[in-house]
Design a protein that fits this description.
Layout lengths: L2 E5 L2 E4 L4 E8 L8 E6 L6 E6 L5 E3 L7 E6 L4 E6 L8 E9 L2 E4 L3 E6 L1
Parallel strand pairs: 2-11
Antiparallel strand pairs: 1-3, 3-8, 4-5, 4-9, 5-6, 7-8, 9-10, 9-11
Length: 115
Amino acid sequence: QVQLVESGGGLVQAGGSLRLSCAASGIIFSAYNLDWYRQAPGKQRELVATITSGGFTNYADSVKGRFTISRDNAKSTVYLQMNSLKPEDTAVYYCRVTQFGYNYWGQGTQVTVSS
């Protein structure tokens, strides 16, 4: 059974940093692309960053240059380092993995950026 568990969210002032973690189990972690999404109140869930099984990364324009996605295959964990945070980054952040066409999501972790 695939499970994803996010952690690392919290309350931070604008300009600050947070590092989110997502620990996976039930999959051959190194074989899969991994995504971070976020959902702000009243808005649709949006893709923030992707890291492929080969380590290639891609980012939403809104976070380029501020966020960094990385992975540690030995720990079956994907990270999202978030720097220069803005109030508009406030959202619940989720990690996702797709296996055999099915999307698995974690429970989410709240990030709140105060101005």
